[in-house]
Amino acid sequence: MRILITGGAGFIGSHLCDRLLADGHEVIAMDNLSTGSVENIAHLAGHERFRFIKHDVTHYIYIAGPLDAVLHLASLPSPVDYLNYPIQTLKVGALGTHNALGVALAKGARFLLASTSEVYGDPLVHPQTEDYWGNVNPVGPRGVYDESKRFAEALTMAYHRYHGVDTRIARIFNCYGPRMRLDDGRVVPNFIGQALRGEPLTVYDDGSRTRSFCYVSDMVDGLVRLLFSDEVRPVNLGNPQEMTILEFAQKILEITGSRSEIAFVRPTDDRTRDDPQRRCPDITRARTVLGWEPKVSLEEGLRETVAYFRNKIIVQG
Ligand code: UDP
User: Fold this and answer.
1) Which domain holds residue 252?
2) What is the pLDDT of residue 317?
């Protein structure tokens, strides 16, 4: 298959390029490199079935020749990024998704939207099932991301119903692994970077909020299975092993062997406004329809990720 991946130089996007190339497909990665990085795809330069196009998906997308699938991963998924670039976040979810769907329609290609657990907002249903409609504050600071993805899902279903585009929607829960940006502000790079530098781990508020972390190879496998399935309804992809952020900080100290302290920090900016209290995917649908569930343990995944960040920190100094 000839596949376009928007956000192809990003964290998950670049791993997806690797996987689809390994499976024998032809891959075109598109990225404006605002949060993605050429470093993530540098090893693919010169690959005969790989091409990179630097382009911002909020502008008209032109691809020469046929396409069998469009995987739309372009996004600003880190809270720090979407709080700093709120309008760009809304534009990539709305205009970017419109352009990516337009390409899929024009080429008769299958379309996969990388959506998010943030469509559930601060959920009142736990664990979250796909039929839960969510609890999002549309006018809060996180609303720019949440609503852009909710709009993207609605637009995807409109293209499916009105234009007959063959669509898939993945709701991605917290994913981690090598190629995350050390400075993207999310809890995994923050804690690992702090632990490796011997700085205090910044646990926001009392650390009682929960998350469930899925390793990137499991996530990519779920996305590929979804792409090749017949499931048009949204599918949660994530690891159902839930823990508090304080427990997660302790796990990072254990894995890194760091003697960093844990510091309880009360952010004065918007970064914890509307921060979901609890988050855990119900993956019954993914298990049943895709035969998928995460395989990589948190310890194993964190060891790989710590090794990656350790190397980054040594290189960057
Ligand atoms: N968090 C934290 N310290 C940090 C970064 C994040 O305590 O240095 C918390 C954050 O408030 C949230 C959780 O960790 O409750 C996960 O945050 P992240 O930004 O990774 O992603 P989110 O799941 O909120 O999209």
Assistant:
1) 178-211+241-279+297-316
2) 59
